[in-house]
Amino acid sequence: MINREVSTPLSSQIYQQYREAILKRRIPEGERLPSSRQLAVSLSVSRNTVNTAYDLLRSEGLVDVRSGARPEVVALPEVEGASAEGSVRETAPPLSSRGQRFARNHRYTSPDGRGSSMQPGEPSRALFPKEQWARSLRRAARLLNGNALGYEHTSGLPELQRVLAQYLAQERGVVCSPEQVLAFPTTQSALSLMSQCFSEEGDVALLEEPGYLGARSAFVAAGLNVRALSEIEQVKRASLIYVTPSHQYPTGRRMEMGERLTLLKQANERGAVILEDDYDSEFLFEGRPIAALQGLSDRHSVIYIGTSAKSLMPGIRLAYAVVPKEHVEGLELAQRASGALTNVHVQMAFADFIESGHFRAHLNKIRSAYHDNGVALCQLISERFGNQVGVSMPTGGLQTCFYLPETCDDVAVADVMNQKGFGVNPLSVFYLGEPKRGLIVGFAEANEKLREGFVRTLEMALKVTGDRLASSAELN
Predict the structure, then answer these.
(1) Quick one: which of 122, 88, 84, 83 has its CA closest to 310?
(2) How far from 379 is each of 124, 253, 307, 311, 456, CA to CA, in Å?
(3) Strands 273-277 and 302-307
(4) Which of 354, 322, 341, 313 is nearest to 140 (CA)?
(5) Reduced to 3 states, what is the DSSP secondary structure of residue 116?
(6) pLDDT, tens digit (0-9, with 9 covering 90-100), for 357-376
(7) Distances from the Cα of 320 to the Cαs of 1, 155, 420, in angstroms?
(8) What are 98-117's pLDDT values in tens digits?
(9) Residue (of 197, 190, 164, 151) closest to 340 by Cα position
(10) Bond from prior residue into 435 cis (ω within 30 degrees of 0)
(11) Among 99, 306, 273, which residue's Cα sits nearest to residue 198?
(12) Half-sphere exposure of 362 toward its Cβ, with a 13 Å CA cutoff?
């Protein structure tokens, strides 16, 4: 009945076993348990151990313990649908339709598990500035005061809001006051909240094609009708438009000024809020960055979203959104209700990291390394595959697209690549309509050894999937 070889206290073991037996009706109502003396002797434990177990049962209302009498099992209410063994139902209640939308997986998933090397959007772990970040964390621990550690400032520490407002104004042309900057744990949590707060179920949301699957997930979960941005002329009204104008995900294309101004006009005509995900804006390899859409607009129709996931690491769990001044109070309340709140220690450390100059120095370092790795990978692909694989030199970011022939099954190729440890994505799954075929490949950590291994694996994957396709054609 009890196990002296485990770390669980003997009193807890006695309590847990009696508790389970009573709840499952194996010990019926009104039955008396052994006296503490009897049970202690039979189990070779002290009476104090048994009394502790009985006290726990009594505190839960499972037994009635009276002075001089053995504990008696009390009457428990019958649970509707309960079986004789006490189990309520064999299956859990189903998810609601909203829950099913939230749980729908729009992302590519390899049947053999996700490869860890060269994942799109994955920054270099080797280049993470551990010492500088550790200093900022220690400084943050000293600077945090009582208000910051309580329930105040749930949508962002004033220190971080001030630093980010200044940084975004200087680097991205964002026009805002500090209180308009809301801190989120992830870009996805910001997209989810904005999708819920700026749309009604059944509204149209427009998404780039190919487009970020996280935005599609947020729109679908909110019950929106997701359509390709290329169809905007056919749409009279839309509630949301999602774009990555600085470095389009996943193609890497930059939206030119004329296109940006046209999009602002189209959004205004359709009453849409633009969700501007300033994806990879820190990693422009050539030319000068174009100012954010938010700074070009009247600032009522664009919500700017940024993150530290690419510039530092995803595990930092810190993103931010610049929202219209008129909606700050409402969105703060909605954010608190959703629980999408960010660790104050990390917020303070990130503010210090930026203000100390470490952030800018870190960006300069990794920007150079990512450029070299990306260019070298693309050159190697061109040398080995020629015109069999379409390559465009990266102009920034952490990933690039390699285009495959339209007859190629890019999902099958990606499955093989992931099986061999390379976490690539098939391009076709990022389309709402007729897809192009290719692979989305991260290059932040693509050193010479990884690049060579990637090319060999891609050659093998194309051969293997080509053989499979040929066999399938013969069978049909």
Answers:
(1) 122
(2) 20, 19, 30, 25, 15
(3) parallel
(4) 354
(5) coil
(6) 999 999 999 999 999 999 99
(7) 54, 10, 35
(8) 889 888 888 888 888 888 89
(9) 190
(10) no
(11) 273
(12) 24
